[in-house]
Amino acid sequence: MQIHNNTLIAECSSYDFKEMLERKKVKSWLKSVSAFANTDGGSLFYGVNDDGVIVGLENPQADADFISEMIKARLDPVPEVQLIPIKHEGRNLLEVKVKAGTLTPYYYYQDGTRTAYTRVGNESVECNSQQLLSLVLKGTHMTWDSLPTQVDANKHSFVILANTFREQTHQEWNDKYLESFGLVTSDGKLTNAGLLFVDNCTVFQSRIFCTRWTGLYKDDAISSVEHRANLVLLLKYGMDFIKNYTMSGWVKMPNYRLNLPDYSDRAIFEGLVNHLIHRDYTVMGGEVHIDIYDDRVELVSPGAMLDGTQIQDRDIYKVPSMRRNPVIADMFTQLDYMEKRGSGLRKMRELTEKLPNFLPGKEPQYQTEAISFYTTFYNLNWGENGRIPIEEVANRVNSSLEKYSIDEESSVKTFGDLQKYSVKTFGDLQNSSVKQKRLGRTAQSILDLVISDGSISQDKMAEKIGVSKRAIEMQIANLKAKGLLVREGADHGGYWRIVINTKAEE
Asked: Do 28 and 112 reside in the same domain of the chain?
């Protein structure tokens, strides 16, 4: 909180301004106390008008006494509140600082009616049934995914999960993991998370809707499919659909092929994992939606920010990790699908920015509404007038393309009923004054993998290419020596980046 030119400045989601204390309509401000206690805490400032201008209070001590009395009389349980007097240039203010509660939900009650409120943006609104359930779980220090069911675990199998675990970790699966991972209780019952990972998952909410739309809006659909399955299969089905209806072009450089994809595969993978993990599974009529348009891919899931804030108003590099479904999140971590440190939003952006055809303004965008979370990935090869010819993309990537004597055809991969785009050549190899030895298969494969996933490890490179780690290390050293590949950041948490214009790096 800051005071500048007699105006109070504070974070919009965590405060309310009150010009005076309303004694007859106490609900008008007690609902904010309830909302702050039920979310991430906040403050009410008395003696400040709606524009933040300080007008002062005549008797702040009497107001403080009344506020304290009403909080004790009308809120259940009573939240932890501090009453802080503030004096500025002869004017008296009063801050009612509400701490984020641990005994949620905090109800406002009057005439036999109990209502819990939550914070949405800069407003205090009545909780819906799903929000109330989440608050009840929070107050009991439980999460929906950790709740036990009455379903016997021995009546279900986890073959898909076990096989995926082996493939991803190269470790043998042990059925004892089911209990240690929180999928099965000590008395042999499935938890809600367990129900989402069994082979024959029947949880109604465990589904995704995938649609490839024509053009830029929801008009006619080229393809539309619904999948109902466990979370492992939903991730696979969703990624298969996305890969099938997005494109990747390439252009021939002097001694290697440079991929110019529409999107970062790994960034979209991180996005879909994020939506499957953090969606609100208490919303019975909701599901994850994958909507592909010509110029973007949108992922939508039920469930806004856990603390009631709006992600579009936050710095994603400073958003703390808050997990609505910690058991599901831990299971995906065990499968090596995500990192423990909860850096998904930042990672999606960084992976996209490492692509050679990235332009500022094409970063993934995040938005929350009252009950939904949106992630939007923008097509890097799409402009105001439609798809950009691949040669124009190449020239955008490298303004000095001619010095590289690009000589072979670029290529664009197309799918379904989408129209094929024209392919042009960049000169004649025979007339080129620059002839360089082509990179070997392994080196080219490394560059292709880096384009797909800039965070990929050398171990994963070796596994995917089918060579030893030593061979990967030698090829990476060679690529670094040629000035084609650099490592940014630490070994863990850093990124590979392909250097296009080597002269510009000098």
From this structure: yes
Tokens linked to 101: 């509660």
Burial label for 422, CB within 10 Å (0-12, 13-18, 19+), is exposed
Same domain for 93 and 229, yes or no, is no
Q: What is the pTM of this model?
A: 0.75
H or E element in which residue 7 lies: strand 7-9
CA distance 388 to 401: 17
User: CB neighbours of 407 closer than 8 A, spacing ≥ 6?
Assistant: 252, 425, 426, 427, 428, 429, 432
Tell me: do 100 and 22 sit in the same domain. Answer: yes
Query: Does 136 reside within a domain?
Result: no
Structure tokens at 125: 């609104």
pLDDT tens readout for residues 444-468: 999 999 999 999 999 999 999 999 9
Per residue, the 3-state secondary structure of 409-461, as one string, reads CCEECCCCCCCCCCCCCCCCHHHCCCCCCCCCHHHHHHHHHHHHCCCCCHHHH
Lowest-confidence segment of 3-17, 155-169, 237-251 by average pLDDT: 3-17
* 381 within 8 A of 390, measured Cβ to Cβ: yes
pLDDT digits (tens, 9 = 90+) for 306-334: 777 788 888 888 887 778 899 999 999 99
Instruction: Clarify whether residues 375 and 446 are in a common domain.
Output: no
Contact predicate 71/79, CB 8 Å: yes
pLDDT tens figures, 113-149: 999 999 887 889 999 887 888 888 888 888 899 999 9
Q: Which residue has the tokens 């240039």?
A: 89
pLDDT digits (tens, 9 = 90+) for 66-99: 999 999 999 999 999 999 999 988 899 999 999 9
Q: Residue 472 and residue 49: Cα distance in Å, rounded?
A: 64
**Are 286 and 356 spatial neighbours (Cβ–Cβ below 8 Å)?**
no
Residue type, 408: E
Cα dihedral 469→471→477→483 (10° resolution):
-110
Does residue 469 sit in helix, strand or coil?
Answer: helix
d(CA 294, CA 297): 8
**473: domain range?**
402-505
Domain CATH code at residue 239: 3.30.565.60
Q: Is the residue at 307 inside a domain?
A: yes
